[in-house]
Amino acid sequence: MSAPRDKFGRPIVVVTGMGVVTSLGAGKTDNWTRLTAGESGIRTVTRFPIDGLKSTMAGTVDFVTVDPFSSTGLTERLAEIATEEALDQAGIGAKADFPGPLFLAVAPVEVEWPQRLELGRAIGKTEFGYDDILRVSGGGRFAKYHHRFMFGSVASHLADIFGTKGSPISLSTACASGATSIQLGVEAIRRGDADAALCVATDGSVNPEAVVRFSLLSALSTQNDPPQAASKPFSKNRDGFVMAEGAGAMVLESYDSAMARGAAILGVVAGCGELTDSFHRTRSSPDGKPIIGCMRKTLADAGLEPEQIDHINAHGTATPENDKMEYNTTAVVFGDHLPKIPVSSNKSMVGHTISAAGAVEAIFSLLTLEHQRIPPTINYEIPDPAILFDVVANKARDARVTAVMSNSFGFGGQNASLILTREPV
Amino acid sequence: MTEPISSSAREVWITGIGIVSSLGEGLDAHWEALSARRINIDDKRFAPYIVHPLAPLSFDAQIPKKGDQRQMEAWQRIGTYAAGLALDSAGVKGDKEILARMDMIVAAGGGERDLAVDLAIMNADARGNSSPGFLNERLMNDLRPTLFLAQLSNLLAGNIAIVHGVCGTSRTFMGEEAASIDAARIALARIQSGQSDIALVGAAHNGERSDLLVLYEFGDYNLTGKFAPVWQREGNGGFALGSAGCFLVMESREHAEARGAKPYARLAKVVADRAQRKQPGAVTKSLEALWRKLDITGERGNLITGATGAEPVTSEEKVFLRQHPGFAVRATGTMFGHTLETQFPLGLALASLSISRGALFPPNDPTGIEVKQSGSPDQIVVIGAGHWQGEGMALVEAIT
After folding, report:
1. Does B71 touch chain A (CB under 8 A)?
2. N or C: at which end does chain A have fewer Cβ atoms within 10 angstroms?
3. Binning pLDDT at 50, 70 and 90, where does residue A3 land?
4. What is the pLDDT of residues A122-139, one digit of tens each?
5. Contacts A50 to B, Cβ<8 Å
6. Active site residue A175
7. φ, ψ for residue A234 (rounded to 5)?
8. Considering only alpha carbons, which residue of chain B is nearest residue A216?
9. Which residues, at least 6 apart from B23, have a Cβ–Cβ distance to it below 8 Å?
């Protein structure tokens, strides 16, 4: 039997397992129920003092704890939970023996403040410099912090416990990271390098410095009260994104390999595309060409026409710049067909899970295909008259959905799109 | 990409090389320094720690806008500069048609912190005068707003896109030494399979950073006291951090020939794995397994390793090397220091350079592990074994 291939002769890449954790809960069932009920996972931060911060709310995952706490530790734990769910569903390989590579989207890692302060206190002086810090750092006392704060540490841990094969890849393409992890998996399967790939995206980095960093770039909403109403994609009074935590995990397989082992096929990654914007470190090119090109590359990669897309899971961060640019570029790509496409932003409810967002939203897109129901964009009370999307406003909408485009755009000119379908196209 | 998978793997050439390091900038300067066995260390600035500081250079030559330079910290300037050299060397600098579809994989760590801000907060905390919101207030007031962009891992790629216009795709791999092994591996696989035609691959590292010394000191990995070549650090293991940037332009043979590009060498294979280093000898075993995947047939050859000097990995690598006594070994760590993500691209670059110049550069080691080699190399194996995880190898070949 010849392998079922797509119209370009490449192996078809299917999804056979999914797992997700967000501020709405752990697992697909909880997330889908609350997402389609229009619930928000955004709340006032209680993990650390919020005094002096301009933005005091986030979509933190407070029901998962790690001890001792570090953002990297939480990031790792969230990835583990999502991956366990995905592997349970896929039923692939044996325990701790996943038959393929790991592609992990993860936030950049560095020593964090609790550990840095611990180090400072260990010096035993009230006035010190880096020489003093270096003097107490060695000798094994803080040995665990070496591993904890290596960039490869989360992937290393996942590779160990899930038994993925080969060198695990940790990647960052900023807010597009989750989509990139899926894209790397798709490419590996299309090349025939692997029959299966584990694509995971995770972010547990709501900590004071992370909030301050985004805040200083004026990227965050400051509509702190009530926190649930802060994230307002496509609204006229939107004022920034809300930081959030979460993880998404996907088992990708070649159609052939999934059929051979009788696995249930949850959906198809029909196309991936990416195009870099070289205009500015944080802003998109005013002509929108890189984003337009990214969406067009993705359509071409899937072999689909714009008219064949019937839902867009938008990047929809709720920053003034992103939403306007996303509408303008989408309008160019989809033209007269755009009014017929319902558009929604999951970030209105779960916030922006940054490195995880692309995968979390791809999973929600696949659930949309499964349930033929589109989660709403909540807090959509005052539409932005310049954004003429058919926004799925405030309440979930039943719809016939066969192909979803999921978009991710990030700092550093990172643009990535995915097209997900229920059946091979 | 929409191209179907070709039935046979396409040949991949290295057509551009850019290097900046403690030994200078560019291929001629590096060839001359390696030939003269030059080593540039600074054992005073961070004493008792030793670093290989970046050679003085004017960033204007590759980053003409001062505004761009100001938006970057040192690691990004080093990388953006090296990327520009690689594009120049490949003859594609400013070629908008090619750059617009050039794929990029950067291996990156994170950027410089504001040490003064960190120290002030740590000192205040140690004095006990920190209220609940103290950290927030200091960070909000004292951090430079754009510093974040100089720290984000993917913003080296972002800066290369902005300054040089490399804008096909942009991916940043993280994870210390292994990140750049995988970057080369994935770029090669994509070009071989027809998913990509031309790619810019590389990394940058600023080794002159107290905060990085602290991070590696946690694991007692820093070389202290007296400098010694990598192979001569028994009893005083560790690495001396080095500053370097290294980028390569890789492309399919067809693509290179169509534009009349002159190759330095062929990148035939890149393989990688991550041994669970729980048992002694795990790295030796992992390297042996990778070696078998390269299908090396001869008993004699050349080998450039990024051996760090950290233990126990370097000793385990020595065991592996002793099993291949016919291979002339060169350790980049002795001359360049340990440049983390940059070490593997550096190995690929020096292998390509050696092949194109028809000689392996001379040994720089009194222990006898490195020996003189004569003749023109037709194959060079490049090895990377990360200081804490990840092993990889590449096979670089002469184009005959």
Report:
1. yes
2. N
3. low
4. 999 999 999 999 999 999
5. 133, 136
6. yes
7. 70, 5
8. B145
9. B29, B30, B33, B34, B38, B40, B55, B335, B336
Task: Find out whether A290 and B167 touch, Cβ atoms under 8 Å.
Answer: yes
B166-187 residues labelled b (16+ CB within 10 A) or e (exposed): bbbbbbbbbbbbbbbbbbbbbb
Same domain as B304, residue B254: no
Q: Does A283 touch chain B (CB under 8 A)?
A: no
d(CA B350, CA B333): 12
Per DSSP bridges, beta strands A25-26 and A13-22 are antiparallel
Asked if the interface predicted TM-score (ipTM) of this complex is over 0.85, the answer is: yes
Do B382 and B327 belong to one domain?
yes
Q: Find the domain containing B360 and state its range.
A: 265-397
Q: Does B132 touch chain A (CB under 8 A)?
A: yes
Instruction: Give contacts of B127 with chain A, Cβ < 8 Å.
Output: 126
Residues B33 and B150 reside in one and the same domain: yes
- CB contacts of B176 in chain A (<8 Å) are 150-152
Q: CB of B135 within 8 Å of any CB in chain A?
A: yes
Nearest alpha-carbon partner for A106 in B127, B154, B389: B154
Residues B57 and B166 in one domain: yes
Chain B residues with CB-CB distance to A150 below 8 A: 175-176, 388-389
Distance CA(B392)–CA(B344), nearest Å, equals 9
Question: In the annotation, is A311 catalytic?
Answer: no
pLDDT value of residue B4: 46
Q: How far does B397 lie from chain A, in Å, by closest CA? A: 23
Residue among A146, A280, A352, A371 flagged as catalytic: A352
- What is the reported pTM? 0.98
Last residue of a domain, one of B229, B258, B287: B258
User: Within chain B, which residues score under 50 in pLDDT?
Assistant: 1-6
Look at chain B and report how many structural domains it folds into: 2
Spatial distance between the Cα atoms of B257 and A55, rounded to a whole number of angstroms? 55
Written as one string, the DSSP assignment of B126-163 is: HTT---TTHHHHHHHHHS-TTHHHHH-TTHHHHHHHHH
Query: Does the pLDDT of residue A204 top 70, yes or no?
Result: yes
A20-65 pLDDT, tens digit per residue, is 999 999 999 999 999 999 999 999 999 999 999 999 999 999 999 9
Same domain? For B315 and B230 the reply is no
Contact A169 B118 (CB under 8 A): no
Compute CA distances A224 → A41, A57, A58, whole Å: 14, 6, 9
Considering CB atoms only, which of B158, B276, B386 is closest to A160?
Answer: B276
Shortest distance between the Cα of B375 and any Cα of chain A, in A, equals: 35
Judge whether residue A392 has pLDDT over 70: yes
Tokens of A1: 């039997």
Report which of B121, B107, B207 is spatially closest to residue A108, judged by C-alpha positions: B107
**Same domain? B279 vs B151:** no
**Is residue B126 one of the residues assigned to a domain?**
no
CATH number (domain holding residue B356): 3.40.47.10
Q: Determine the pLDDT at residue B7.
A: 53
Q: What is the DSSP-derived secondary structure letter of residue A227?
A: G
Chain-wide mean pLDDT for chain A? 97
Within 158-177 of B, beta carbons closer than 8 Å to A belong to: 158-159, 161-162, 165-176
Strand-pair category, B327-331 with B301-305: parallel
| Nearest one of B168, B251, B161, B164 to B1, comparing CA atoms | B168
Question: Where do we find the tokens 């337009």?
Answer: A292
Shared-domain flag, residues B280 and B240:
no
Is A315 noted as a catalytic residue in this protein?
yes
Does residue B182 sit in the same domain as residue B33?
Answer: yes
Q: Which residue has the higher pLDDT, A68 or B7?
A: A68
Domain boundary among B258, B284, B304: B258
The reply to whether B118 falls in a domain is no
Identified catalytic residue from A157, A175, A199, A294: A175
Is B127 inside a domain boundary? no
In a domain, B176, yes or no: yes
